[in-house]
Amino acid sequence: MSLHTTPPWDSVRNYVDGSWRTPTGEDGQAIVNPATGEAVSHVEFSSAADVDDAVAAGRKAFETWQSTPVEERIQPLFALKQLLETHQAELAEVLVREHGKTLAEANGELRRGIENVEVACGIPSMMQAGHLPNAAPEIDETAVRKPLGVFTAITPFNFPGMIPLWFLPYAVATGNAFILKPSEQDPVVAERIFELIDRAGFPDGVVQLVHGSVDTVNALLDHDGIAGVSFVGSTPVARTVYERAAKNGKRVQAQGGAKNHVIVTESADLDFAAEKTVSSACACGGERCLANDVAVVEESVYDEFTDRVLAVAREQTVGDGLDEDTDIGALITPEHGERVRELIATGIDEGAELLLDGCDVSVDGQPGGTFLGPTVFGDVEPTMTIAREEIFGPVLGLVPVSDLDEAIELLNRSDFGNAASLFTSSGADARAVRHRADVGNLGVNAGTAAPMAFFHFGGRSDSFFGDLHAQGEDMIHFYTDKTIYIERWPDA
Ligand code: NAD
């Protein structure tokens, strides 16, 4: 059975205890296609009672699920992988129609999400903790990992198909129950994924979906029945969620915003570096926590690199993400588009040189869309607002520096520590950056430092609050606690 891909779509529903329910909170909002400005669906927010129902169902399911053999627990994940792959093209279409990015980008993020399902299928090996016979005289010691209960993840708008899957597969494979609260700005793709989850064979209450906004999040954070919280979103909210969840005695990991740098040294392949730098800054409309939107360039190649960046940026086609020719889709809302334009105006006011202005872009036949073309600033000073604040639009700033030391110093002064990239052909430069750059995801001759699912997704400083990250082995640690058995059998 195929998924419903063509809007208008019915209002999104919660998925609680194995059935679809209408959220009963008082507020809600329209879901709008950013490329057309047209409403495609509606989301009602969940009340505290809806959250209570989901937590109660999750706790009931956990009683049995935690002791269900691990081999049985991963079978629905194998089914889910197949279902996600079979319906990937439909999911991508839905995602584009509520988010605005391109079809290629939507497919890319879904593939990344599926990879997390694949990794979580390896839980029977990954969850083992250790055994040591004769740890002391006549004593054997065994560590075991145990699931903890009901976990929740609160996710952002910019990767609505992938980020829920950074958490969901690991939480349930390790024996927990899981509740997703997706972004209220583009929650339809999450509902479609849950239509597949409904077919994948999970017992009722193991995987649930509640829609909502601030009040729903707070009901989850304050609920005694929630053992732990994963959050991904902007830094101010990440900090608040981290503090509130921790105060309530929960495990918490909270990933925040970013401001990432790319360093270009004089030995770099400048064509390659320019292409990857423009792509990093502008793909997904710049709405990526891994976007490198400040390029720190050695003076000796600054002019040459700038020319190449401008040439690549001018080639980008802005348009509806469903159009195959589109490189840069729409920004999520007119309000966000306005904020990006204001930051561009601030860049001009503070003295940066506007080399390419994307503000006047228009897309034929799409007068209601929120579009912005690639925008490039030259001679950016590190103290300027556009060099310090997350912009989340297709805006790149170029900063000339005298040498690599100055470049590393500059990126380490940032309040954020999410990601950085280096373009060079010098092993010594690469080693210096590896050792000294204070960021969580670091790429060398890779424009966007996105780790595969079997590695954790890094981040530090104002980009991350907590200790265990999303994806990979960190997830096993986050979703389990270790018990140690110390055994003596004197007659053996
Ligand atoms: P956001 O902080 O506005 O919202 C994220 C989630 O928090 C949503 O589900 C939303 O409903 C909820 N929320 C919003 N305000 C809240 C409040 N006051 N109290 C409680 N919950 C609240 O973020 P966004 O605009 O959806 O996403 C973009 C941000 O996410 C960017 O800053 C981006 O860098 C960041 N991000 C970070 C990573 C990472 O791995 N570090 C990954 C993706 C996105």
Strand and helix layout:
Blueprint: E1 14-16, E2 19-21, E3 28-32, E4 39-44, H1 48-65, H2 70-73, H3 75-86, H4 88-99, H5 103-120, H6 123-126, E5 130-136, E6 139-147, E7 150-154, H7 168-173, E8 177-181, H8 188-200, E9 207-209, H9 214-222, E10 226-232, H10 235-247, E11 251-255, E12 260-264, H11 270-282, E13 292-298, H12 299-314, H13 334-349, E14 353-356, E15 375-378, H14 385-388, E16 395-401, H15 404-412, E17 416-417, E18 419-423, H16 427-436, E19 441-444, E20 460-461, E21 464-465, H17 472-478, E22 480-488
Parallel strand pairs: 7-8, 7-10, 8-9, 10-11, 12-13, 12-18, 13-16, 15-16, 18-19
Antiparallel strand pairs: 1-2, 3-4, 5-6, 6-22, 11-21, 14-15, 17-20
Helix pairs in contact: 3-5, 3-8, 4-5, 4-8, 11-12
Nicotinamide-adenine-dinucleotide (NAD) binds next to helix 9 and helix 10.
Short description:
The protein is of the alpha/beta class and 492 residues long. It contains 17 helices and 22 strands. It folds into 2 domains: 14-256 and 463-485, Aldehyde Dehydrogenase, Chain A, domain 1 (3-Layer(aba) Sandwich); 260-444, Aldehyde Dehydrogenase, Chain A, domain 2.
